């Protein structure tokens, strides 16, 4: 099997209580992602990943990770899923993400995971153990309640139903699990009907939070791939994007002004967190040393 040489696994980040995805470190145990999302930002040239849809594991990632975890003076939350889904099909066999969670547990770190796969349920035992003392947050991305549309825009990930089932099981087991409701594609799934259908499913699954963004980024290769897929499946939409967004990096839905207040109102009604600071404050625990002192 092809493997990628890696010198380091952990990347230091600057956690910000008012910003999405509060992590002290980020890591990607794999390069590339095979879920095939038509809007994926990780295809952009700045990341330098050729043949992005092929998943390649990083050689000796678990050994390198353990050395780094031992050396770090500051413990904290380790994020997974920013550039590559940690629960890709290869993970079933390789179990690198599972082995990394074992190390996270062993060395007293927390974790925040972003995924579109219900394979995360395989690791529920470890997430529960980490959650006893450290911070754990799971974000499962869902963008459409329509199964036909989902197969077009996220063709090789778990279905939306499977993702909501995973959310339900995680929350029933005490893991704070919510939704990354992004990106939302203008003229494709930025409707109140889609939002309402997702919110009803979120309520039924008792999700902990929703991170909403009614728009997407578009950069070079990412835009090219998206436009190719828009032409294949949504004739005329690419032309609307070209007219409305030009070369803009961000493409926000014109319906945002309706969708945001609607989401906020429903989340308040259903007891779902949607404010970034509230979400971060709800799951970030002080490191163990501080807990003992307290
Ligand atoms: S799951 Fe994430 S990383 Fe993978 S293709 Fe989709 S957007 Fe890209």
Give structural notes:
It contains twelve helices and eleven strands. The strands form three sheets. It has a seven-stranded mixed β-sheet with strand order 1-2-5-6-7-8-9. Strand 8, helix 7 (192-204) and strand 9 form a beta-alpha-beta unit. With 294 residues, it is of the alpha/beta class. The chain has helices at 61-71, 89-94, 96-106, 124-133, 147-153, 160-172, 192-204, 220-233, 237-245, 256-270, 276-283, 288-293; strands at residues 11-12, 25-27, 30-31, 56-57, 77-80, 110-115, 136-141, 177-181, 210-212, 215-217, 250-252. It has a single domain (11-288), classed as Alpha-Beta Barrel (TIM Barrel), CATH 3.20.20. Helix 1 runs parallel beside helix 3 (96-106) and helix 7 runs parallel beside helix 10. The structure holds iron/sulfur cluster (SF4). Iron/sulfur cluster is lined by residues 33, 35, 37, 40, 42, 84-85, 116, 157.
